[in-house]
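INFO  loader      accepted 1 record
INFO  loader      residues=275
INFO  predictor   begin
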Amino acid sequence: MALVRVPSLHRVPDGVEGRDPEYIRRILPRLWLAFELYFRAEVDGFEHVPDEPVLFVGNHSGGASVPDTWLFLLAYNTYFTVEGRPLIGLAHRVITDTPLIGDLARKFGMVKAGPHRAREVLDQGANVLVYPGGDVEALRPTRDRNRIVFDGRKGFLKLAHDAGVKIVPVVATGGQETVLVLNDGRATAKALGFDRFLRIKSVPLTLSIPWGLLPGGLPHLPLPAKIRMQVLPPIDLQERYGDEPDWDDAYDYVTSTMQVALSALAARTILPVLG
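INFO  predictor   done
INFO  writer      dumping tokens
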């Protein structure tokens, strides 16, 4: 009796090792065109990025589908080319552990969020993209769509300072108009214990396609909102604050700089979703 050999499931490695330049090169033109048309995307300011490893710090939007993250990855690889300095994004385990989506994310260089992994990638000479607000910001109420919500998290500051790299802020509007978030879900996540056991910090009520009204946020079909992104000039924490920064002061400076830029970008929106 012949034995049937069942192929094993191969998990794509992550980070610089898992990034697949040939795959990105092949799929990039189609994905970029699709995102550009669907979201009427505008991404400006890449001329501010220095030719050295940096920590991109962005405001997070769009629930579990995070269209602004994908848009930035596509725009970066289009501007700097696939052969340029790799961009490695830190993502929640909901993204990296999801079948198919997780493999796609790892081929684009995404890694599961964590400070030690981020430092390792920076030391390899790659750029790193982080969203300090995480799911709290990505699932903030729609009424707060144009607010920076980092929830007091300062780990990104210490990462950039210890690694000796500049912070390059990135602000975006429109992503939080791709899903309707009805309330702040932090208290619900804490009451259910999700913050301790699943590292999920927010479980709000959301209205999305195809799920309708749902507690929490599953990957959904984003509404075709216009997304604008602006890359800001770099911030050198070591130059500004020296060897022993006041982290509260540094946090206030970075978030206020981003908030001013985000508010200016949001002022260009005439009507939500339509842009």
